[in-house]
Design goal:
The complex is a heterodimer. By secondary structure, chain A is α+β, with helices and mostly antiparallel strands. Chain A folds into 2 domains: 159 residues, no CATH class; 104 residues, Arc Repressor Mutant, subunit A (Orthogonal Bundle), CATH 1.10.10. In chain A, 44% of the residues lie in helices and 14% in strands. In chain A, the strands form 2 sheets. A 5-stranded antiparallel sheet of chain A has the order 1-5-2-3-4. In chain B, 33% of the residues lie in helices and 26% in strands. By secondary structure, chain B is of the alpha/beta class. The chains are: A alpha+beta, B alpha/beta. At the A-B interface, helix 5, helix 7 and helix 10 of A face strand 1, strand 2, strand 3, strand 4 and helix 2 of B. Bound molecules: guanosine-5'-diphosphate (GDP) and magnesium ion. The site of magnesium ion has 3 residues of chain B, from helix 1.
């Protein structure tokens, strides 16, 4: 039976669940855009994972999980040049730099991290090849899939909830003009600030997502956060040309511009 | 009729009084964002947060003024574009008691003006402090041309902040008239 398809139709969580329950051995390849992720399993557990676009540097990985010091890395790089990960791991353990458990713990987390990258893919061609095993020279682990499946399911559930909160991406946003409601201290991320810049009754949420290069999940998350903070409201989009960020004063007409400034002056005088 | 939103941006070095100024006139609690959080669940994606203030003055049903406070360093480049949309003008806050920050204030002013060639005004803040520099001395220190307005300011005092905002708005009107001829 060929296990292949697209993540659009069969989610990564469903895939992991299947591999887990059927205790499969083999390789799962997922291709999306320019990324290719390969995950190897033995008896339904992760043994190795790699993103083809991310170089695998064992010493750096160990350093970022604080198992090695940066200064040690420089020295070890020189000392153990050109070794395969498995040989290098052996040398590190034999040399007394760290324990085998240190290396395996770090790699379990690292390989899981590679798999987690897939959670945010909405699209991606996958195929499972059994009983292929990981490229030689790599360090294998045995990492159960249960935690990952739970985490993936949680993400999926969040997505479902966000869909309930923001049913249509064809709606537009406007700045909330009810003074003082719902405001509380929030931390706006870079994505959130980007979205704020496109808030305009003429821009649909879909258009904002395109302009800010956010995927469906992320735009919903950002809009939801801004709604919660009371900064924006959802409205039916106004017809007319889309206004994108630029340096223009909002009102085009000079008399209208002057009228705006004069109204501001009156208002501020009255404070 | 839709609500028109315009903004005035308040920039300047750290601790110059940006948050204080916005707080003095905003009708809502100022939303201050400080550089913190990266959501635990989102380790995959970087989420940079930036120190920023957000205040509001409602004029009427059709018009709302937003006040954005931003530190204005180079590394926040991506925000200039965001901030300059619908921006009427900006205020550069300078702490009059800390001449060691004047150079930075000057550089923020230049950067911001290059990105957004709108009217601006310099607010010589903390004029209530005994060791505050004189406004005209600051003009020289900041190398401000005589055409650029510099106003004494006490950000904690509403009346003082009003004057700064009004001065900026007058400048905006003047510029509109100048462009007409
Ligand atoms: N004496 C005095 N202190 C001020 C004034 N404006 C701000 N401060 C104080 O200066 C410090 C920095 O102000 P803040 O608004 O947080 O600066 P920001 O970093 O530019 O946002 C705070 O302790 C304020 O209370 C002022 O006009 N006079
Ligand atoms: Mg502040």
């Amino acid at each position: 039976m060929a296990l292949k398809g697209n993540l659009r139709d069969f989610s990564i969580t469903q895939l992991l669940n299947l591999i887990h329950i059927a205790t499969k051995t083999g390789a799962l390849y997922v291709e999306g855009g320019s990324d290719t992720v390969a995950v190897y399993f033995r008896d339904g557990k992760i043994s190795f994972a790699q993103n083809a676009n991310q170089s695998f540097d064992l010493l750096k990985i160990l350093a970022s999980s604080k198992k090695l010091k940066r200064s040690q890395v420089v020295m070890l790089q020189e000392k153990f040049k050109d070794l395969q990960p498995a040989e290098l791991g052996l040398c590190l353990v034999n040399g007394g730099y760290l324990s085998q458990e240190d290396i395996l713990d770090t790699l379990r987390a690292y390989y899981s991290g590679v798999v987690k990258q897939l959670f945010i893919w909405e699209d991606g061609f996958f195929h499972f090849e059994g009983p292929e095993s990981a490229p030689e020279g790599n360090i294998m682990v045995r990492e159960s899939l249960e935690d990952l499946i739970v985490e993936g399911a949680r993400k999926l559930k969040e997505y479902e909830q966000l869909k309930d909160e923001i049913p249509s991406l064809e709606m537009a946003l406007k700045f909330s003009d009810r003074p003082g409601t719902n405001m509380r201290a929030i931390n706006l991320s870079q994505d959130e600030w980007r979205v704020v810049s496109y808030v305009n009754p003429k821009n649909s949420i879909t258009q904002i997502a395109h302009a800010t290069r956010l995927n469906e999940m992320d735009i919903r998350r950002v809009v939801y956060a801004l709604l919660q903070a009371g900064i924006v409201e959802i409205i039916r989009p106004a017809s007319g040309a889309v206004i994108t960020p630029g340096r223009t004063f909002v009102a085009q007409d000079r008399d209208e511009q002057k009228s705006i400034v004069n109204r501001l002056i009156d208002r501020i005088r009255a404070i | 009729m839709q609500t028109q939103t315009v903004k005035i941006v308040v920039t300047g070095p750290f601790n110059s009084g940006k948050t204080e100024l916005i707080r003095s006139v905003s009708e809502i609690d100022v939303v201050s964002t400080e550089k913190k959080i990266t959501a635990e669940a989102e380790k995959v994606k970087e989420s940079t947060t930036v120190a920023m203030d957000f205040g509001r003055i409602t004029v009427d049903d059709d018009l709302v003024l937003f006040l954005f406070g931003t530190p204005g360093q180079k590394r926040f480049d991506f925000m200039w574009e965001i901030l300059s949309e619908g921006m009427l003008g900006f205020i550069v806050m300078v702490d009059s008691t800390r001449p060691e920050t004047f150079r930075e204030a000057r550089s923020i002013l230049e950067t911001f003006h290059a990105y957004a060639p709108t009217p601006y005004i310099v607010a010589a803040n903390k004029q209530d402090c005994a060791d505050a520099w004189d406004v005209e001395d600051m003009r020289v220190a900041l190398r401000l041309d005589h055409s650029i307005k510099i106003m004494p300011c006490v950000a904690k005092k509403k009346s003082s902040v009003k004057n700064v905002l009004l001065e900026l708005l007058f400048g905006i009107l003047e510029e509109m008239d100048a462009n007409r001829s």
